Amino acid sequence: MAAIETTSAAKPEAAARPNWLKRDLLGLAVILAVAAIGYFLFPNNLALLTRILGVALLVLSIDLVTGFCGVATLGHAALFGAGAYASGIAAVHFGITDPLLMVVVGAIGGAVAGIVSGAVILRGHGLAQLVLSIAVVHLFHEAANKASVYTGGSDGLSGISPDPIFGIFAFDLWGRTAYGFAVALVVIAFIVLRLITRSPFGMLCRGIKEDPIRIRAMGASVQGTLLKMYVISGAVAGTGGALNAISTQVVGLDSLSFTLSAEALVMLVLGGTGSLYGALIGTVSFMWFEDFVSAANPFHWLTIVGALLIAVVLFAPRGLYGTALTLADRFRGNGK
Amino acid sequence: MPDASGPLLDQSMQTVLSVGIDALAYGMVLFVISIGLSVTMGLMRVVNLAHGAFAMIGGYIASYATQTLGFGYGVAILAAVVGTIIIAIPVERFLYRRIYGAPELTQVLMTIGITFCVIGIANYVFGPTLKTIPLPETLRGPVDLGFRSIAAHKLFAIACGVAVAGALWYLIERTSFGVKLRASVDNAAMAASLGVRTRIVYAVSFAVAVGLAAFGGIVGAELLPIEPYYALRYMVTFLVVVSVGGAGSIPGALLACLLLGAIDTTGRYLLPEYGEFFFYLAVIAIVCVFPRGLLGRRS
Questions:
Q1: How many domains does chain B contain in total?
Q2: Where in the cell is it found (chain A) (predicted)?
């Protein structure tokens, strides 16, 4: 009896394993294909594509805490900006101009900012949590503004000149190297995050989002787990910030702004929370659309984004990716 | 008494007094605008980031009424409050009603969306420039209080804050509507089952909240100037006031406004190079110690 049960229990699992592996590899292939198409379709606009990828890392990192852990935050740019400033300061003031090292410094900077802001934000719930996250990003912003000796204050931190990657690929004027570097970073981040979200730790985080009291009753530490996730999220956001610093060679105070935090959250929800694909889709569609419309009139852009947000909340609460999945499921169900 | 310390003491007294008056005026303007937000958030549990947008709409209407139509200040205030409420009713009916009881993230997104729309439309209709609401003659000059003179519009803002606090206190503590409102805040389902028509209570308090926001936007236009990004610039400030004071508590909101107004104004006078650093540091400290706000109800 027991033997039958174990075999029957083991069978679907064995079948499921290659299934998700196949799906992830397919997803990875799609990401690379889209990146390649972007390269060939917009060879004169690689700077924008690189910026999209930097922000995509920020949106992925918000997804980790909001989509997977259920922490509502309007202050995640603090982590992104901390990474950007950490790598920028390392390059300008300490002569660390190797791009890989700069990314590592940025990730560490973001992770440290993650510990600090996580320790503050996780003390509250609901409204208090939102307000704490807003206060944290403003605090970071004002601190960076005041410490102008290191950060350049409101003029921004300029003079970042990264070395060639591996000493071979120099950063060219067209941004080809920067774009390739960005794609590589996003792909690596995606693989690592895929592994983390599928791990028991990732499952624990999802459990906390569903029912924190039950997780505590199971004997797991809710605050400790969330703080760990915040540190991971900070490292991802910091990588995005470092990428931005390397590709644009300047770090501005806007990378620590409330506006960037809010926009990144909007991108995440537009794409769909709780899914890495949703974060990527949301970022690409939002920023491409923004570039397209705001070139015409920045204020029309605000009106359209506002209307779009209201429409998403009313008609597609699971975001573009989630709604597409639902539609695909329904279509498949009808087909049967 | 030593000779030197006399004028020095006098001077520092003057500084303390002018900081105090500015802080009081700023705090009262914050109170008039955000008290409506506090009541609606305590009542409907909606994180409403679009509240500042209604204050901005009020300011724009008042500016239009005085500058283009040539109305007086008092008429403009009335027109702006009524106009803003008329604009807000369909917004409440078709958008807000969908997000009562939804998760915070949904509410944040919906209300940010409304704010963006209002900013875009305001800019389209009125242009990107700063709008002024000319004060009447009586509020323009300084008022001599005997020991020193104070700008009349600041005194007017303080008086408005006191009047709003008093009127709200009367409305909530002494009228039958107030009883229904308090019952709905405490337990909406129980109030509804006892025959309180909570939908009407919600709609009326939303209208009052929006009207107060518009009123505050006009009265405070000298301190918080009216321009398209107003709604975004002060969105956080109003939300912070509610969170620090405790959603749904009038004394809490008053206390929070006076405290935060004092911290912000003192910081601007004494340490202007730090910007709002100490303001947000204080917010973090208060919210960490009092997660439900200074006078929020423990539930």
A1: 1
A2: Cell membrane
CB neighbour list of residue B210: distance below 8 Å, 6 or more residues apart: B36, B54, B84, B85, B88
Q: What does the block give as tokens for B46?
A: 């909606």
* Domain hosting residue B102, numbered range: 26-230
Q: Do B291 and A143 touch (CB under 8 A)?
A: no
Q: What is the pLDDT of residues A192-204, one digit of tens each?
A: 999 999 899 999 9
At A105-132, the pLDDT tens digits run 999 999 999 999 999 999 888 888 888 9
Contacts of B108 in chain A (CB under 8 A): 72, 74, 130, 265
CB contact under 8 A, A306 and B124: no
Structural domain includes residue A317: no
Token duo for residue B176: 């039958």
Q: Domain range spanning residue A45?
A: 18-256
User: B106 near A313, Cβ under 8 Å?
Assistant: yes
Q: In this structure, is residue B295 part of a structural domain?
A: no
Residues in chain A: 336
Is B296 inside any structural domain? Answer: no
Q: How does pLDDT run across A266-322, given as a tens digit for each residue?
A: 899 888 888 899 999 999 999 988 888 877 776 778 888 888 889 888 888 888 888
Q: Hey, is the C-beta of B108 within 8 angstroms of any chain A C-beta?
A: yes
**A213 within a domain of the structure (yes/no):** yes
pTM score of the predicted model:
0.87
DSSP H stretches of helix in A42-75? 46-62
Of A265, A302, A314, the CB nearest to B116: A302
* CA torsion angle A195 A197 A203 A209 (round to 10): 170
> In total, how many domains does chain A have?
1
What ipTM does this complex have?
A: 0.84
For tokens 């969105």, name the residue.
B235
Q: Is residue B159 part of a domain?
A: yes
